[in-house]
Amino acid sequence: MFVVIRWNGALSKTLYVQSDVRQGGCISRTIFNMFVNAFIVHLRELSVGCHIGTKVVGCLFYADDIIPLSPSIVGLQRMLYKCVGVLRSSI
User: What is the pTM of this model?
Assistant: First the structure.
């Protein structure tokens, strides 16, 4: 498969996609859920987030959106570093 990226009316050169999982494919939901679960597991390990009673809410997920929650900038930065680590380990 080949793709071209359009950005502000400009087109990139043609890129060859060596492997992919097509959106809507029968396996795409499973792979997406496994990928998102890695974020949940690693963010939970930090125990960073907003405390509601005895619960810690560190992030909200809806569809393909991730909303990290932290009462401090330091906590939020730790969460972002952790997400970058998850992305780097999946390459």
Answer: 0.64
